[in-house]
Amino acid sequence: MENTVLKSPLNSDDSRSFLSTQEKMELSAWGLPETVLKCYLENGVKKMFPWQAECLSLPGVLEGRNLIYSAPTSAGKTLVAELLLLKRILEGGCKGIYILPFVSVAREKMLYMQKMFGSVGVRVEGFMGSQGPSGGLKATDIAVCTIEKANNLINRLLENRRVDELGIIVVDELHMVGDSHRGYLLELLLTKLTYVTSSMSSAGSHSPENKVDEKTMQIIGMSATLPNLELLAGWLDAALYTTDFRPVPLQECVKLGTSVL
């Protein structure tokens, strides 16, 4: 796999902090591998929204701090998680798990990430329904899973004392933790991860500042409809970011007869 160092152009200690506001929003300013950057450009992603750069630039996030963020649908939440996931995999040489609630969206995400990250040697496989790679997690860099499959994978890693192979966990649709049927499973999964991350963080507490610690595990959670944000961030010891930004603003109108008010 290629090595990359994803840095924030908004960091006050970085010479790129002198870039103009528009230049800071350029995806090319974030140190992505050329082949990955080309894939994003071909998909029409040339610039970040201001909120995405602000979220990535929260203290400690690029260095492995947990992150919880909430933004409306279509605001670009996925890009933030993808960049952090790619950074962790390439820099730390570890594995990542991307958790989605449903098989259909998990499969779609798997195919998308295979296209985006395959050029830098990142192996993306799906663990959903009856699907799973023949080599299991050993043959995978990024495992795209449903909640149930992710829980099984983490249980197996804990039993085999291999959980230190994981460097990052991304939970999409984090509001599912409140689901009456499957929420308990996601809560149990996150509880196990918080315990593991606290233990791993203690073991890697002497890592140099601003260097990604390979012994820690980063938890990223996102949703468009997250209640109790402060409570969740406190539970996961995570940085918190919220925005109401929408690429296309919504307008609420009232139709009265033939008039729209």
Model description:
- With 261 residues, this protein is α/β, with parallel strands linked by helices.
- It has one domain: P-loop containing nucleotide triphosphate hydrolases (Rossmann fold).
- The protein is 35% helix and 14% strand.
- The protein contains 8 helices and 9 strands.
- The protein is globular, with a radius of gyration of 19 Å.
Order of helices and strands: HHHEHEHEEHEHEHEEE
The CATH class is identified as Alpha Beta
* Structural domains: how many: 1
Content-based structural category: alpha/beta
Task: State the CATH topology.
Answer: Rossmann fold
> What can be said about the biggest beta sheet?
7 strands, parallel
Mean pLDDT, nearest integer? 85
Q: Please provide the count of β strands.
A: 9
Rg, nearest Å: 19 Å
Share of helical residues: 25-40%
General shape: globular
What count of helical segments does DSSP give? 8
What is the first-to-last residue Cα distance? 57 Å
- The side-by-side strand order for the widest beta sheet comes to 3-4-2-5-6-1-7
Strand content: 5-15%
CATH superfamily: P-loop containing nucleotide triphosphate hydrolases
CATH architecture: 3-Layer(aba) Sandwich
Low-confidence stretches: 206-212
Q: Write down the oligomeric state.
A: single chain
Features:
Rossmann fold; nucleotide-binding; helicase activity; single chain; 9 strands; alpha/beta; hydrolase; Helicase_ATP-bd; seven-stranded parallel β-sheet; 8 helices; about 260 residues; two-stranded antiparallel sheet
